[in-house]
């Protein structure tokens, strides 16, 4: 089966997922109550599938959908400040046809990159429980199996970093020894080829406090390109 069909099947499974009752209830409640600014909009309110190019060289893994971002729009990193940072930089890199992603019906397309997350439902307090991450990991494993051309796996935050490491084991790939630690800009060569690269997540908390600056953010994508070309 070609990657496009594989990813489409995975997406359908994700949207229909009911593995985590707490997360499903939270997403539905957020979609019911809404934020005042989006009162007239219809929220997605379901698990959010990955999005991007089936032939991607760059796999980007975040934490989870934002309550009023992807949980509202139905597309990863869409409709919130994190998405503004992400799609703005992807456009600068020539990997996105537009610098903003407002909703899933936008004509925006990605070239060379696939965007996904460790958890597919917006969690309360933006903190999925370990058991919920475990239940969701199979979807990331399936996406990693389907995306056969990926050269760089970019983890946005420590939870995404750990999710990639644990997914490797499920794919039958060797553990990395010693286990790499998470640090912004840390690049780990993988024994099967390619790289694992880490970045702070472009959350508003990180970007507003200066923990993640625009220069740091742009630099990690420049680094990803350099690694892919090695």
Mind explaining what this structure looks like?
It is a single chain. The chain is of the alpha/beta class. It has a single domain (3-229), classed as Uracil-DNA glycosylase-like domain (Uracil-DNA Glycosylase, subunit E), CATH 3.40.470.10. It contains eight helices and six strands. The protein has helices at residues 3-15, 21-33, 70-73, 81-92, 130-146, 158-170, 204-209, 214-229, and strands at residues 51-52, 58-62, 113-117, 152-156, 187-189, 195-199. The longest helix is centred in the middle third of the chain and has 17 residues, at 130-146. The protein is globular, with a radius of gyration of 16 Å.
List descriptors.
230 residues; alpha/beta; Uracil-DNA Glycosylase, subunit E; 41% helix; 11% strand
Summarize the structure.
The protein has 230 residues and is of the alpha/beta class. It has helices at residues 3-15, 21-33, 70-73, 81-92, 130-146, 158-170, 204-209, 214-229; strands at residues 51-52, 58-62, 113-117, 152-156, 187-189, 195-199. It has a single domain (3-229), classed as Uracil-DNA glycosylase-like domain (Uracil-DNA Glycosylase, subunit E, 3-Layer(aba) Sandwich), CATH 3.40.470.
What number is the mean pLDDT? Answer: 96
**Strands, count:** 6
CATH fold category name:
Uracil-DNA Glycosylase, subunit E
- Shape by Cα distribution: globular
Number of helices: 8
What structural class do the secondary elements suggest? alpha/beta
**Uncertain runs:** none
Question: Strand order of the main beta sheet, please?
Answer: 1-3-2-4-6-5
Q: CATH first level: which class?
A: Alpha Beta
H/E series, N to C? Answer: HHEEHHEHEHEEHH
What is the radius of gyration?
Answer: 16 Å
Taking the sheet with the most strands, its summary is:
6 strands, mixed
Overall structural domain count:
1
Q: What do we call the CATH homologous superfamily?
A: Uracil-DNA glycosylase-like domain
- Percent range for helical residues? 40-55%
In whole angstroms, how far apart are the ends?
Answer: 29 Å
């Amino acid at each position: 089966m070609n990657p496009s069909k594989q990813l489409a099947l995975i997406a359908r499974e994700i949207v229909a997922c009911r593995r985590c009752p707490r997360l499903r209830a939270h997403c539905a409640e957020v979609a019911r109550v809404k934020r005042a600014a989006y009162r007239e909009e219809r929220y997605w309110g379901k698990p959010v599938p990955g999005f991007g190019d089936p032939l991607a060289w760059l796999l980007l893994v975040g934490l989870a959908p934002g309550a009023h971002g992807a949980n509202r729009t139905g597309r990863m990193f869409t409709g919130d400040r994190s998405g503004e940072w992400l799609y703005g930089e992807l456009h600068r890199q020539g990997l996105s046809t537009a610098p903003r992603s407002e909703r899933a019906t936008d004509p925006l397309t990605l070239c060379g990159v696939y965007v996904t997350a460790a958890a597919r439902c917006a969690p309360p307090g933006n903190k999925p429980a370990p058991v919920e991450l475990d239940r969701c990991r199979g979807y990331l494993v399936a996406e990693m199996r389907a995306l056969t051309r990926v050269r760089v796996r970019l983890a946005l935050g420590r939870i995404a970093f750990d999710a990639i490491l644990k997914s490797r084991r499920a794919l039958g790939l060797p553990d990395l020894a010693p286990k790499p630690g998470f640090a912004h800009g840390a690049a780990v060569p993988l024994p099967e080829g390619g790289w694992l690269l880490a970045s702070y997540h472009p959350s508003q908390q990180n970007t507003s406090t200066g923990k993640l600056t625009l220069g740091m953010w742009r630099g990690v994508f420049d680094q990803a390109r350099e690694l892919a070309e090695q």
